[in-house]
Design brief:
Number of helices: 0
Radius of gyration: 13 Å
Number of strands: 11
Helix content: under 10%
Largest sheet: 7 strands, mixed
Oligomer: single chain
Structural class: mainly beta
Order of helices and strands: EEEEEEEEEEE
Strand content: over 45%
């Protein structure tokens, strides 16, 4: 059973940085796409970044240059480095995964496994 557990969220001031982590377990496939999504109150879930088993990445235009997705295969952990935080980054951040050969979408429907989320709150 695939389990994804996020951590690293918190309350920060605008301009600060955070690194979110997602510990993965129970995933037995050699190929995958893992991604980070966020959802603010009253808004749809938005894909922000994804990385596949070959290390290829994709980002939403809204976060390019500020967000960096990475992975540590030895630790089965996915990361999201967020710099220059803005109040509009405030949201619940979710880790997601799916068994595909490469990342082809940042749409939530393209991911079958989800974590419970970690809250990021940015104050101005």
């Amino acid at each position: 059973q695939v389990q994804l557990v996020e951590s690293g969220g918190g309350s920060v001031q605008a301009g600060g940085s955070l690194r979110l982590s997602c510990a993965a377990s129970g995933y037995t496939y050699s190929t995958y796409c893992m991604g980070w999504f966020r959802q603010a109150p009253g808004k749809e879930r938005e894909g922000v970044a994804a990385i596949d088993s070959d290390g290829s990445t994709m980002y939403a235009d809204s976060v390019k240059g500020r967000f960096t997705i990475s992975q540590d295969n030895a630790k089965n952990t996915l990361y999201l480095q967020i710099n220059s935080l803005k109040p509009e980054d405030t949201a619940m951040y979710y880790c997601a995964a799916d068994h595909v050969n490469y990342c082809y979408t940042l749409r939530a429907a393209g991911f079958g496994y989800w974590g419970q989320g970690t809250q990021v709150t940015v104050s101005s």
